[in-house]
Amino acid sequence: MADLSRTERKRQRTRTALIEATRKLAYRGGQEKISVQDITEEADVGLGTFYNYFEHKQAIFEAVLDDIQEVFDTQLDRFNSTLKDPAMLMAATLKYTFQQAQHNEDWLIFLEYSGRSRYQILHQSLAQCLSYIQKGVTAGRFRIGDIHFTLNLIHGMVRHVILEIAQGNLEADVSEEAIRSILRMLGLPDVVARALAQSPLPAVSAPRRSPLPEVINWKL
Amino acid sequence: MADLSRTERKRQRTRTALIEATRKLAYRGGQEKISVQDITEEADVGLGTFYNYFEHKQAIFEAVLDDIQEVFDTQLDRFNSTLKDPAMLMAATLKYTFQQAQHNEDWLIFLEYSGRSRYQILHQSLAQCLSYIQKGVTAGRFRIGDIHFTLNLIHGMVRHVILEIAQGNLEADVSEEAIRSILRMLGLPDVVARALAQSPLPAVSAPRRSPLPEVINWKL
Amino acid sequence: MADLSRTERKRQRTRTALIEATRKLAYRGGQEKISVQDITEEADVGLGTFYNYFEHKQAIFEAVLDDIQEVFDTQLDRFNSTLKDPAMLMAATLKYTFQQAQHNEDWLIFLEYSGRSRYQILHQSLAQCLSYIQKGVTAGRFRIGDIHFTLNLIHGMVRHVILEIAQGNLEADVSEEAIRSILRMLGLPDVVARALAQSPLPAVSAPRRSPLPEVINWKL
Amino acid sequence: MADLSRTERKRQRTRTALIEATRKLAYRGGQEKISVQDITEEADVGLGTFYNYFEHKQAIFEAVLDDIQEVFDTQLDRFNSTLKDPAMLMAATLKYTFQQAQHNEDWLIFLEYSGRSRYQILHQSLAQCLSYIQKGVTAGRFRIGDIHFTLNLIHGMVRHVILEIAQGNLEADVSEEAIRSILRMLGLPDVVARALAQSPLPAVSAPRRSPLPEVINWKL
DNA sequence: CATGAATGAGGATTCATTCAT
DNA sequence: TATGAATGAATCCTCATTCAT
Question: Quick check: D56 CB within 7 A of strand E?
């Protein structure tokens, strides 16, 4: 990452410009509503240039998702490393996920419009949760029936709340209530659930890249 | 309704064929992924015929949604009228909703791909739930914080579970567990929750997929 | 014309209804802008009925032109029979032609939109003029060079003035001035030209058929 | 204008090819009778190429008219500058107009089929005439009644003669007779009218069919 | 004869992708 | 590598015409 040739750096810059352009246009809808020309115009490069970086149109959408996923996962991993308690991990993971939703419109829009792959985008977040739940159950902190099914219910809640927030149907601060509900559902006493839901995310360094200033606050 | 002229009956049959074809093709994705030709080929009618029945392509998608909604709502109303207890009503509504999900693949697919209107399609179901929750809270049977937010969480869970079932990721019979979880979340003791989740739907005539009796019978 | 069977009369009525409908719709533009359905709807008959009366769509447009032509010619013939003097005949023919233009919008619209055949529609009128000019030249009343070419110039003027009137660019009463100019061009002294241009059309019985009330005044 | 990049030159060539193709096809009738495919086939380019140059089908028809108009007007202006006498200007303008008619079939066809705008296409020519007539009247050389109406009559004659020539119904050399008739109608003595009608156009560079020199030379 | 459902060729327009420069 | 002109398959939609009832 440190010593790329000048041309190589330029390549990266163009590639990034294309991806950013695509994110910016995502509000229009799915792939069908965004043309390659739209993207290259937004990125301010020639139309043909696109195909020097992506084989198909579809490829850039996947790249955008990968990009989002990567940033998301990287960030999430940092919390993994700073926490131990499964209940806290659950709370932090959920809180982080909701915060992404509140601060990163593109992210949501891709969640919304990227079809089947939207299940993928929360995957990391949920995979983490699964292990936390397992740990929690083993440790006797959580009391639930089927682990996977519970995860499913949580997935549904998270996803729904995220989209509702995105559409302005819910206040952003409901995330705490959601987390509390989920923790209660896992068998935690309400006091504990509430406390965890209210505690801030552990402080870690800022996420690598994002055009949105507020995103800086993610580290909160 | 019984006494339509032959022509009129034929018209209805063609219209239904187009709608059924559209439902059948819905698995491909949204409107963008289904061409009018796909529909007419699937329905085995000429391309031009489509436009004798629907003004735009979009119109048939709306018609399909209306169709689904109507059947769903009509059916749901029957349960409304046979039950009184809010907890039972909740359980029945949820159970019915999950049942629809299991028996009508198309229904789900449309839930999934019809964009914003997907919130509409469960609307009736959820509007019912809201009043049941209110009743339940008033009657002291449910103990929850914010009613609307709780409804949101339920919405998310229901929707997600439905889609998971549709995609074969979950066994159909988890619906009972979901209902039980939801009832527990509403504050019912686990025993009651389990009992309600297990009790069968009140007996009413079997759900039908279309408001047009003749055509349906002809297809079954 | 007197004793047609009832069915035959009905046939005629339907045919006429179709033709009238077409005239009424002519304001939309040429054949391309009027669909067979438009015509049958306007005529209040079934779509298929159209093809019991006309082989193609084009056929009805020709029929309309023939119809217009026939009425026009029939009427024109009456003047032929009541006048002798070639200058008067010229004046009357021109005046009648301009009057048609003023009172019969359909007529003009067909003139305007029927493509090449529009040269045909004035044909009778001009054929008459040709013989009058010849008579006039022979009789020494007109003094001109090439007869056919003069007729061409007249044709151009008449046609243009008619369309200008139709489009509201010229006052209807300019027809007198036009006639006067034409007669002058034929070599008549201005006083005579003016007198002829101002004299009314000979009174004859009303034209056979037209949906426009004012048309009754044509007999003027 | 001289120094266009190669690409730019290519663009112009394609654009011109499309416009020329359209002119060539105009004999078929209006826009309705010419499909975009017809045009691109005639121009020997791919169908899609059309839309790199014109937003709609309609746009190319307007472009053709603008093109014709521009060439016509530019040329006409040259005569304006070399003559003073209103009668000579009238004669020259008319003669030039008729000449265009004889040499540019396409020009006529567009005159004929371009709907309302056909009045526009002769507009420049006639606007000139109007000022010449006014000058002539003021100077006492012309003796007529209403100036505008006279102009209308002239418009009609010119247009008609042009189209008759185009259709082969009239010999090309009648233009002299037409000019003579028009000048006589304006009150000039026949000898003068004839003399003016016969005098050749002032010598200026040959009329060109297109404002784009390179392309034109390439085609000639 | 009257009707209108069915049909498919035809037409405008979009856009992903290729390729020569 | 960057570019953008060229391309044609794909798509929506219209409408003249046919034909069974």
Answer: yes
